[in-house]
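Run TetR family transcriptional regulator through structure prediction, thanks.
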Amino acid sequence: MTAEVRPASPPLTERQEARRRRILHASAQLAGRGGFDAVQMREVAEAAGVALGTLYRYFPSKIHLLVATMQDQLDHLHTTLRKRPPAGEAASERVAETLMRAFRALQREPHLADAMVRALTFADRGVSPEVDTVSRQTTAIILEATGLERPTPQQLSAVRVIEHTWHSALITWLSGRASIAQVRTDIETVCRLIDLTSPDTPGAAAGAGSEAGHGDGAGYGDAAGAGASGSV
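Sure, done. The structure for TetR family transcriptional regulator is below.
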């Protein structure tokens, strides 16, 4: 069964974009004060100064809204990172610094972080395009931190593992099962995969050749390349 392809939405007018910004701001404010349960569509509409029906035309559900809120937060993060890039010498150091800066931003807003992560966890197939956008944004941020213009399949695989670890570390911290020190250690450890999969590392070239022959790895590389040149 093929996935349903949504028709492309027409670009928003300046007025519509301003309305969308108000909605996302209201969502973040409510989530920041009370977490996932505090984001009620009627209250978001009232805080944003829009009709409830208008809100649902922009975001069909609370999950859509909170995933879009995470997209918006990642956009802000990427803008900040471009103004003040990570300064580590090794690619692994730059990626670790990038993810820890993202973590510290979420640490300042734990209720908002929890709401966005829960939305990603609860998202079903109807929210797949929005969730995919979040994944591409994260991939693009990590790839930009590496400074790699043409990452190998092995390095793209390392990026996937880093993303999985980052997401898992965030969940375990939000649930109180990991300290900030543990998160830092896990992030710094997994980011070393970037250096270990460098073509200059002994044994990496053979692994990259094997990965290149795998269909899924090649497809992910195409998607990651699109994300890196796209929305973030």
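Residues 205-232 have pLDDT under 50 and may be disordered.
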